Amino acid sequence: MSTKRVPKNPFLIAGYESPSYFCDREKETKALHSALQNERDVVLLSARRMGKTGLIHHLFATIPASEAYCIYVDIYRTECLKDFIECFGRAIIGQCGTPSAREKVMQILHSLRFSFSTDMITGQPEIGVTLVNQQDEIVSLSQIFSYMEQADKPVYVAIDEFQRILDYPEKNIEETLRSYIQHLRNVFFIYSGSQKHMMIEMFSSAKRAFYQSAQNMHLGAIEEDAYYTFCCSHLQNHQQNMSQEAFHFLYEILSAHTWYIQSVMNRLYMLGSPQITIETIQQVICDLLEENQFAYQNYCTLLAPNQLRVLRAIAKEGHVKEPNKQGFLVKYSLSAPSTVRSAIKVLVEKEFVQDNNGEYSIYDRFFGIWLAQ
After folding, report:
1. Euclidean distance between CA atoms 36 and 155, whole angstroms
2. SS3 letters for 84-104?
3. How far apart are the first and last CA of the chain?
4. What distance in Å separates the CA atoms of residue 71 and residue 88, rounded to the nearest whole number?
5. Assuming Cys at both sites, which of 104, 152, 174, 176 could form a disulfide with 209, CB separation 3.0 to 4.6 Å?
6. Which residues pair with 242 in a beta bridge?
7. Alpha-carbon distances, residue 350 vs 126, 354, 365 (angstroms)
8. Cα separation of 191 and 212, whole Å?
9. What pLDDT digit, counting tens, does each position of 147-205 carry?
10. Do 215 and 41 contact (CB within 8 A), yes or no?
11. Is 19 left (phi over 0), alpha (psi -120 to 50) or beta?
């Protein structure tokens, strides 16, 4: 009989274990579940590392197996339609259906070659999927959707980093996918993405194939009191305490960004200090900045001088709503507004800066602190 793994450190910075190590998101989980149950697709938006993937895995972990097949597909590393189909095929065979159903899908998807192996590290079985004939891409895609549509219960599919399809070299990818998805009655989707402007354009522009095909959901920060309660619970089990003042400092300096808070909490738990103070938190952050200093210095070499000046100015301000205002330009000795606009456009495209409806901040919270210093 298998037993659940108990993490040595409850403050996870990668992967998903169980509800015990997942903080809050009760409202968001219910909203996603309700949408899928009521046959609505969802566009899930947030900045990178805010917790979208964890939320999806948490949702799927709480859905009874009798209700639906839950399939998670991460297409971040795919580069073309062929990659997408192979990635999708692996996810379906691994997660959708009984062994006999999986054997059936392997017979149906004749354009895909399957291989079975064992992961050398985990010992878990792995399924390899390769498209045999690239001319059969559309046929394979059609068969994949057809198989899911014929499943014996609803299929919930989460496609992570969905905006990646916009970078594929093939033409009309959106139209191709939408032409199949719009006819599905047994399959419901969560389209997750971190490049907000691309996702909004894809689902909000009347010129695009996915126009108004899904409800929008923005994943913001975890509420401070709920996060503090979660942290205290695990710290107390480790004979550690942290005041609300200390947590508030951490929450504010990292702009409530989930992954960065988790990273610091992971280190604080590791240290085992009986009483965690603001000074303890500051020291952990200093250690993290020192560990990453070489990478941060390298980032700076990738930018033109004017772009770096704008980046440092944004870091020192924390959040900038009107970067073209004279006061901001004078304060940081920046060039003309047009030059600053051009620099910010590049910084957003390169994901050094995030644009939250015209308010700019540094994407990497630790890098932002390092720049501000």
Report:
1. 9
2. HHHHHHHHHHHHCCCHHHHHH
3. 53
4. 9
5. 174
6. 276
7. 34, 10, 15
8. 13
9. 899 888 999 999 999 999 999 999 999 999 999 999 999 999 999 998 888 999 999 99
10. yes
11. alpha
